[in-house]
Every structure is written in C-alpha cells, then in structure tokens.
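This week, think about what follows.
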Amino acid sequence: MDEILKCDGVTKRFGGLVAVDNVSISVKKGEFVGLIGPNGAGKTTLFNCISGYYKPDKGRIYFKGIDVTGKPPYVLAKLGMGRTFQIVKPLPRLTVLENVIISVLLKTEDIEDAYKKAVDMLDYVGLRDKMLLPARSLNVAEKKRLELARALALDPELLLLDEVVAGLNPTETDNMLNLLRDIHKKGHTIIMVEHVMRAVMNVSERIIVLHHG
C-alpha cells in the first residue's frame, strides 16, 4: 500500500502550551486507523494541523506525497481530504440538502449535478427523508450523519473523523459503525479520533496513541 499521509515532527504551540509535540506518524492508503488518548492529548489539534486549520510551528505534513504544510482547508479538500468535527456545526438556517450541496460545489460548478450528488449522499447516510428540513431541526445522531455526508460529498481519499460517535446511544453507535465499515470498504482511508473504545476496537485496523502531545 502507498503512503497517503505522513506527519514528520509536527509541533503546535499555543503560547507556553505545547499541544502537539514532535509527532511523526504515517498512514497507508486504504487503512482504518484509530487515534486515541485522554482529553487534552492533542488529537483534535493534530487533526487541525493535518487539515489546514492550524499551521504547525515545526515539522512537515505530506498528503499523497505532496508537502501540504500550512495549506488552507479548501486546498486540501480539493486534493481529496475530508473531515468531520467534534462539535457538529451545520449551517442551521439552510436545509439538510443545501448543506451538502455546498460541499459538492467545491468540486463542480454544475448545480444540477451537485443536487443529484447531494441527494445520493443523503440517501447513503440515511437522511434523504429529512433533506428539505432545516439543519437545525436534526437531532444529534442525524447531525453527525449530515456532517459525514458533507465530508463524503467531497469525494475524499482520506477521511478524518473527530469523535463521530460521541453522544450517540448504543443503537445509534452500532448504526454509525456499520456505515463507517461500508465507507472503508468503498476504498476510503480513515483516521478516527474517538473516546468510545468499543467503537475504536470494532473498526480500527491499527491504533495510534497520543499522550501529552
């Protein structure tokens, strides 16, 4: 398998706090990797560095062999990187469908194609019957699925999932894990930050532990 992501000595500081300290990891294309560690370990900060929301103070990040250190999120999205967020933030006044269409439009200017693809994505994650509702009307589990649909609409080769089952009940968790397994089978590389160990152990092929950055 080819290496799709490499972090080489990545460090991120906030004043005197070193949130990510000289982290070097690599992920092969097609892997499903769990990233675990206690609260404050630096997991989300590392995701933010990888996905372009933060620029590392030191170190380099390579995606598909390209040095993407400090590149903005929209550039990485166009290259094939998608992510979800620990705190889901859909555009609340827009419909569920419009939220996904916006993601699709990063890759195409054809509104009709964007509409069709967005509907397909919502059908895939089980939200087609909710697509005309305002996004703010969804419950937590549904918002998590919307977040996933928005990421998948980018046709990502690499998916960064930040606590995608947090706040879900056992049945909702199992349904989400089944969906993630299917996404992985379709060829997506996945790195998942998660505190629910049952979820991590059920789907991950390999686990990376981050502690004190």
Remarks:
- Strands lie at 3-14, 17-28, 32-36, 58-63, 66-67, 81-83, 158-162, 189-193, 206-209.
